[in-house]
């Protein structure tokens, strides 16, 4: 049994880690931090975990206390910029670290200046970090000590596009991605635009130029393609709590048929535990509503021949495949546990 700590456990991602790990047969959470709720029981914040799931109380944010607790694994569900100096301390102590912030996702230190506006203080560790998407990096994840868990919008976008890029079916210099995102993506700390009276019944784009997830989408798709990928991504805040739906618009690299597209998706995802191709099901296109609570990504595609556009779709639960679920999936690979440990719950319906 691996002993785990969660730093930033009072947030939405921390709560999902606690929920998922409550039924994990190989990982036990022994410490959960929060500055605001130190001393309070976990269910004081995460009401869904009332009952027998955990007897833990939050402890203060203190790296030394984590090190004293004799843990094997630390999940960092902290805001961007907060993990960056915590990671080396944990790695130096020999622990496995799964960072859910963006602090170790990008390989090129210059990209932190460009996209996040700061000089990365540990560029050497960027090379050691493995981007925590098993569908792309399963072999590198085995035994990995530092896992950089992907962003939620980036996960949906990348999973939609992998087959098209891998098989060279679309041009890589101009990919347009539209994402519909639920409010939990903004975290548990209230802000005016995400306050219920503002958000309910409204739809709005945000950060249509320079959304930071573009950096990781381009990085990962460029690795697959072997050529630089240029993408434009516009998320839209929509009135759902969970869920991320990516629609990518691509220009075919040559004439492509529906049969070729199906072949590409089947080759890439036919054996994947957590990706379902929904093209031939009654709902031919993914809907986040039918993955909620699960680690699934539902994917599909379409050709609009008249306009010369190939469209790729993916729906995820942003807090599960887009965050805590994918982090646990990657850790399972890293530690040699069954990849679906803790992740076998089917999606909710209705949700
Ligand atoms: N929400 C998503 O859909 C999603 C998806 C993928 C990745 N992520 C990433 O995962 C991380 C957590 O996201 P979230 O949505 O769970 O955010 P959140 O709900 O705002 O939770 C943040 C957590 O970090 C703690 N915290 C905040 N500032 C801190 C500081 N300066 N020092 C120590 N602890 C601090 C907070 O607790 P206290 O204030 O009580 O200490 C809380 O437990 C972020 O990096 C986010 O970008 C989020």
Can you describe this structure?
The protein is α/β, with parallel strands linked by helices. The protein folds into 2 domains: about 1-130, 3-Layer(aba) Sandwich (Rossmann fold); about 150-320, Dihydrodipicolinate Reductase, domain 2 (2-Layer Sandwich), CATH 3.30.360. The protein contains 11 helices and 13 strands. The chain has helices spanning about 10-20, 65-70, 85-90, 110-115, 125-130, 135-140, 150-165, 195-200, 215-225, 260-270, 320-335; strands spanning about 1-5, 25-35, 75, 95-100, 130, 145-150, 175-180, 205, 230-235, 245-250, 275, 295-305, 310-315. The strands form 2 sheets. Strands 8-9-7-10-13-12-11 form a 7-stranded mixed β-sheet. It has a 6-stranded parallel β-sheet with strand order 2-1-3-4-6-5, with helices on both faces. α7 (about 150-165) crosses α10. The two termini are about 35 Å apart. The model has no long low-confidence stretch (mean pLDDT about 95). The structure holds NADP nicotinamide-adenine-dinucleotide phosphate (NAP). NADP nicotinamide-adenine-dinucleotide phosphate (NAP) binds near residues 10, 37, 189 and 319.
């Amino acid at each position: 049994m691996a002993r785990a700590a969660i730093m930033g456990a009072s947030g939405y991602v921390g709560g999902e880690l606690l929920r998922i790990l409550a039924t994990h047969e190989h990982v036990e959470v022994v410490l959960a931090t929060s500055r605001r709720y130190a001393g309070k029981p976990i269910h004081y914040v995460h009401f869904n975990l009332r009952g027998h799931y955990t007897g833990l109380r939050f402890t203060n944010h203190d790296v030394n206390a984590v090190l004293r607790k004799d843990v094997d694994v630390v999940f960092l569900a902290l805001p961007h910029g907060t993990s960056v100096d915590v990671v080396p301390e944990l790695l130096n102590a020999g622990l496995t670290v799964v960072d859910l912030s963006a602090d170790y996702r990008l390989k090129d230190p210059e990209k932190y200046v460009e996209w996040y506006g700061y000089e990365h203080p540990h560029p050497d560790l960027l090379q050691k970090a493995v981007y925590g998407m098993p569908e792309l990096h399963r072999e590198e994840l085995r035994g990995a000590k530092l896992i950089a868990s992907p962003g939620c919008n980036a996960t949906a976008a990348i999973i939609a596009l992998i087959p098209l890029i891998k098989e060279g079916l679309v041009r890589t210099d101009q990919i347009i991605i539209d994402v519909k995102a639920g409010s939990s993506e903004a975290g548990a700390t209230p802000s005016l635009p995400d306050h219920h009276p503002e958000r309910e019944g409204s739809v709005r784009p945000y950060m249509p130029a320079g959304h930071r997830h573009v950096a990781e989408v381009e990085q990962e798709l460029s690795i697959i393609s072997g050529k630089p990928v240029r993408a434009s991504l516009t998320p839209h805040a929509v009135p759902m709590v969970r869920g991320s739906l990516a629609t990518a618009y691509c220009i075919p690299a040559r004439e492509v048929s529906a049969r070729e597209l199906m072949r590409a998706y089947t080759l890439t995802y036919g054996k994947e535990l957590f990706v379902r191709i929904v093209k031939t099901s009654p709902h031919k296109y993914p809907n986040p509503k039918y993955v909620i609570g699960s680690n699934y990504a539902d994917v599909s595609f379409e050709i609009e021949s008249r306009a010369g556009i190939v469209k790729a779709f993916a729906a995820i639960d942003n807090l599960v495949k887009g965050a805590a679920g994918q982090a646990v999936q990657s850790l399972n690979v890293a530690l040699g546990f069954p990849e679906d440990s803790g992740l076998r719950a089917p999606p909710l319906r209705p949700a």
